[in-house]
DNA sequence: TCATTAAGCGTTG
DNA sequence: CAACGCTTAATGA
């Protein structure tokens, strides 16, 4: 049902594992199982205990929450190669948002004991964690900025820049298979608004829209959008 | 009034 | 068959 991850697969989706000495890498592997989730299904709900550090093998995971009034808020999408949840595992607290599989998704789940063992014993692992947290911090600062701009193309650009981030998601490359509907779900926009904004971004030469996917020329160009004046 | 959305449907690759 | 474009009716600012 939930088999241990193979060494090959771990190498393919976990960039961090490459930097670990063989013994540590094997120890990590034996603490990771694979699990499948159907499209649209919840991986966990806000408030749930979900004490695993999680890697995306395949598919896309959406982080979202709803306010008391029922308004939906999407944070980020996590594509293949992303690892997340270190915050909640470290603090051993309930999840602060819902996790939804946007499409058929396969996850790698590392149990908390293994995570803490690496945290206590592996220099390489900690180096990865610091780099990842630092990269995320920069992303979330940008998120606040675009939240106040409330500009549809800018919001889309931000969501896509997160997905394409080479530091966090090295597996993604310059092309990402994602539908416009999924992009809309991630950025909290309708399908029409998403389509319109994507065409504007295409017009601005920051990306190319192809069937069931998005291509970018360089991550920097996407991440820099919008470049109006000095603010 | 004008803009935006979800839903349904036709087209297409 | 799924992604996308287009139309339409509802919603609301």
Draw up the topology in text.
Layout: H1 7-13, H2 22-29, E1 32-37, E2 42-44, E3 52-58, E4 61-66, E5 72-78, E6 83-84, H3 86-91, E7 98-101, E8 105-111, H4 112-121, H5 123-149, H6 152-164, E9 175-176, H7 180-187, H8 191-203, E10 207-210, E11 213-216, H9 219-224
Antiparallel strand pairs: 1-8, 2-7, 3-6, 3-8, 4-5, 4-7, 9-11, 10-11
Helix pairs in contact: 5-6, 6-7, 6-8, 7-8
The protein binds a DNA duplex (13 and 13 nucleotides) through α8.
Low-pLDDT windows of residues? none
Shape estimate: globular
Mean pLDDT: 87
Order of helices and strands: HHEEEEEEHEEHHHEHHEEH
Q: Structural class, please?
A: alpha+beta
- Strand tally is 11
The proportion of residues forming helix, as a percent range, comes to 40-55%
Number of helices: 9
Largest sheet: 4 strands, antiparallel
Cα Rg: 18 Å
**What is the terminal-to-terminal distance?**
52 Å
Strand content: 15-25%
Structure description:
- This protein is α+β, with helices and mostly antiparallel strands.
- Helices cover 42% and strands 23% of the residues.
- It has 9 helices and 11 strands.
- It has helices at residues 7-13, 22-29, 86-91, 112-121, 123-149, 152-164, 180-187, 191-203, 219-224; strands at residues 32-37, 42-44, 52-58, 61-66, 72-78, 83-84, 98-101, 105-111, 175-176, 207-210, 213-216.
- The strands form 3 sheets. The protein has a 4-stranded antiparallel beta sheet. A 4-stranded antiparallel beta sheet has the order 2-7-4-5. Strands 9-11-10 form a 3-stranded antiparallel beta sheet.
- Helix 6 packs across helix 8.
- It is globular and about 50 Å long.
- The mean pLDDT is 87.
- The structure holds a DNA duplex (13 and 13 nucleotides).
């Amino acid at each position: 049902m939930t088999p241990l991850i193979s060494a090959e697969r771990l190498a393919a989706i976990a960039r961090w594992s490459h930097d670990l000495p063989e013994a540590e890498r094997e120890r990590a592997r034996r603490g990771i199982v694979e699990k499948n989730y159907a499209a649209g299904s919840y991986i966990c709900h806000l408030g749930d205990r979900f004490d695993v550090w999680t890697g995306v093998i395949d598919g896309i995971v959406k982080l979202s929450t709803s306010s008391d009034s029922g308004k939906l808020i999407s944070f980020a999408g996590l594509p293949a190669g992303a690892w997340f949840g270190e915050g909640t595992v470290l603090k051993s607290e309930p999840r602060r948002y819902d996790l939804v599989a946007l499409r058929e998704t396969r996850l790698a789940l590392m149990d908390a004991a293994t995570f803490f063992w690496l945290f206590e014993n592996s220099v390489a692992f900690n180096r990865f964690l610091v780099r990842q947290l630092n990269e995320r911090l920069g992303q979330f600062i940008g998120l606040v900025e675009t939240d106040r701009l409330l500009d549809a193309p800018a919001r889309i650009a931000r969501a896509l820049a997160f997905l394409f981030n080479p530091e966090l998601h090295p597996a993604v490359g310059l092309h990402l298979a994602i539908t416009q509907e999924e992009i809309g779900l991630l950025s909290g926009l309708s399908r029409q608004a998403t389509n319109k904004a994507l065409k504007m971004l295409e017009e601005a030469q920051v990306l190319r829209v192809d069937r069931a996917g998005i291509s970018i020329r360089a991550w920097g160009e996407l991440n820099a959008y919008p470049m109006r004046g000095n603010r």
